[in-house]
What does this fold into?
Amino acid sequence: MDQTPQGLAKGARAVAAIRPERLHLGLANADNSLTERIAAMAYHGPDLQLHAQTPLAPMPVLARLTAVPADREPVSVGDEVTLRWLARDTLIFAEDGEPT
It folds into this structure.
């Protein structure tokens, strides 16, 4: 993101959030990406939930994939993966918890 979100002072501490279903494996035209190692996986009905560790976050990142992408690019615990998402799916929160 090249611009400071409205309501957030330049240089202020902030947190980026992306809904788990907005993260994708292999999305060709993504604006953002993050390489992580899969710490855990769980199937929940038609979804595959991935819990991935990254040095950029203290807690695992949760990604929720539907069956088609999960079947197209099979992964296992311990695999390094690149999760991608569109900039418009990024929410920025000031460190006090208020969205900007």
Remarks:
- Helices lie at 67-72.
- The longest strand covers residues 32-44.
- The two ends are 14 Å apart (CA to CA).
- The mean pLDDT is 84.
